[in-house]
Amino acid sequence: MLRVAAADPASAEALALIARLDAALLAITGDSGASSFDPRDVQGAGAAFVIAWNANDEAVGCGALRPLEGDVGELKRMLAQPGSGAGAVILAELERRAAACGYRQLWLSTRRVNTRAVGFYQRHGYVPVPPYGRYIGRDVSICLGRRLD
Where are the domains of the chain? Predict the structure, then answer.
């Protein structure tokens, strides 16, 4: 049984999960992704940071939501311990929160070489969207999005 709840992105648990994600991304892509995340962006209106805990009360994943533009929110800093099932639970919670904030779409960017992440999002209905913001002209990135119904 997994429990997902809002958390402070500056908490010790959040920082430990983000450090794990940074290390994993650095190993997979050659870039930790840390430069594209500011914890202040996921605090306040239209934003969220969540952590998933397993039945042993161990933090097994995290994810963030922040405003992007208009009715579009952006997913950031998704991490799930392999085999925990946390990825789908975190994604569903962030999608629920996004809809409650009035977002009609969720977008994200990941590196193309991160095929596990690309496949995960595609299995959950995310399709390519035009590059946006800092991802414009960056062929190493793929931008994906999903309409929220």
Answer: 3-147
For 30-115, where are the E strands, in sequence order? 48-53, 59-69, 72-80, 105-111
76 near 38, Cβ under 8 Å? no
pTM higher than the cut 0.90: yes
CA 106 to chain centre: 10
Mean pLDDT of the chain: 93
The total of other beta-carbon atoms located within 10 Å of residue 1's CB is: 6
Q: Report the CATH number of the 3-147 domain.
A: 3.40.630.30
Contacts of 121 (CB under 8 A, 6+ apart): 108, 110, 144
Alpha carbon distance 87, 124 (integer Å): 10
Number of continuous H segments (helices) and E segments (strands) in the chain: 3, 7
| 60: Cβ contacts below 8 Å, ≥ 6 apart | 2, 52, 53, 54, 80, 81, 84, 86
Per residue in 57-94, pLDDT (tens digit) is 999 999 999 999 999 999 999 999 999 999 999 999 99
